[in-house]
# Entry
Amino acid sequence: MEKLDIAKELSSNAYPGRGIIIGRCECGKYAVTAYFIMGRSENSRNRVFVEEGRGIRTQAFDPSKLTDPHLIIYAPVRVLGNKLIVTNGDQTDTIYELMDKQYTFEQSLRTREFEDDAPNYTPRISGILHFENGGFNYAMSILKSADGNPDSCLRHTFTYSNPVAGEGHFIHTYMGDGNPLPSFTGEPKKVAIKGGIDEFTETIWNNLNEDNKVSLFVRYVNLEDGSEETRIVNKNK
# Structure
């Protein structure tokens, strides 16, 4: 699979929707995670990321303009022991709660489906990083309708062991703008992970569509000592 330039991937798509990137930095020292959200409606754009413990939560920037919290207010990132969970919806909590009861990542997601936002039936995308013995592995999942048919849910999980330095994978909800919005197809895209946390954060943020981007979370986890560096960028300030 061709290794893609994340800047070109983002700048060429006006509306990838919500996206997850997981991989390993060029020097091999850090596990890298990024999650961004975008919005077309005033309700979707009226959000910011705020820290909550070692994770984050979406929050209304102007509470007086919040019309419907369903599907837009949730915790995208939570930490369970040596696992970092990142998703585009409240399935973060499902994964957290069921894995705490010894379910696997995949088993946890069998209890969920795509979002109930007809006619888009937005896919639920999820990722998990598992840290152990100075290394890590990760998995990504997508739950989507069968080409827009809500009677059938397609479930795909992709796993990556001993990630290669300078490489990651990118999965997002939509192939582009449209009505209804076309769901992501295929396996997660292999992308280059370049630079330190500030450079990588700027690369993602600066190449997201200016009108539609809302918030971005990036975390670098030091594989040697487990320390974390996090960046949060919100368009609403």
